[in-house]
Amino acid sequence: MKKTMAVLLALVLALLPLGGCASTGEETPRARLQVVASFYPMALLTERVIEGVPGVALHTMAQMNTGCLHDYQLQPRDMKILENADVLVYNGAGMEGFIGRVAALRPGLKLIEASAGQALLESAAHEHEHEDGHEAHEEHHHGDANAHLWLSPKRAMAQVENIRDELIAADPEYAQVYRENAQAFLQELEQLDGQVATLLAPCQGQGVVTFHEGFTYLLEDYGLYQAGLLQTDDENAPSPRYMAELIDHIRQEGIAALFCEKQYSTRLAEAISRETGAKIYTLDTIVSGPGGRDAYANAVLQNAQTISEALKK
């Protein structure tokens, strides 16, 4: 019996982790500064600014399959992330409707609005409401502004500057590192701006029909214009009257390309394509992706290349 017990004890000890303790061991120390990005594009911009700063951790709140955050409701997972956060970087311009609630729940949390100070275009959904004579419902109103500034590198540069300045205010000890990181990233974005300008220069003055208003800043910043939207409301299909008017407009303007988004169905575009002969192309709103240092630039450049190829006459 004693021999049997000795064997069993040896087996148990062999299965225990080194150190002879069956607990989880030492806990990972909490980061000195917990930074949360509201969603994927804000994480891409913030990541480059905090790169290599000691003791800073970055978390992304909304999961990547969420898309834009116009009507996003805070999830238990988000509240858990925010519970220990020191800083929240968000797009602003009406994109994150939950910011007021977050500010009330976490009064000590530093909020960084990446779009602060930028001149904003009016939301196409807001314009359409006025045209139809309908009032917006408060629970589904996207605000008066188009919030999709990150899709144009010109606007993204201003967002990076805001993120840099506010992180320096929150963590002044490492101000120089934040400045150097931001400067290197801004130089890359300036080069990206030049590449996009070169690609879209032959397309200047042309009208573009996109799935929704996400690309209006990109178009206007590089000499094109928004000629129509396939969808003006995230939840409701466009009316038959709107569809008929859009089809007539596409025919009259001779628009040969329709731009959908990889996060959404192409059903509407396919219907309009059958009526007008316009070809369908896909753009990326950069609300999901593989991540990485070059993820933002690669996605923007791919969008510009797609528009350029589609509009070449």
Automatic annotation (TrEMBL):
Please name the GO terms that the record assigns under molecular function: metal ion binding
* Pfam families reported for this sequence: ZnuA (PF01297)
Instruction: Report the domain of life of the source organism.
Output: Bacteria
InterPro entries per the record?
Bact_metal-bind_prot9 (IPR050492), ZnuA-like (IPR006127)
Signal peptide (UniProt feature, chain positions): 1-22
Provide this UniProt record's keywords sorted from A to Z.
Signal, Transport
One GO-annotated biological process of the protein: metal ion transport
User: What family is reported?
Assistant: Belongs to the bacterial solute-binding protein 9 family.
Q: What is this protein called?
A: Zinc ABC transporter substrate-binding protein
Organism for this UniProt entry: Luoshenia tenuis
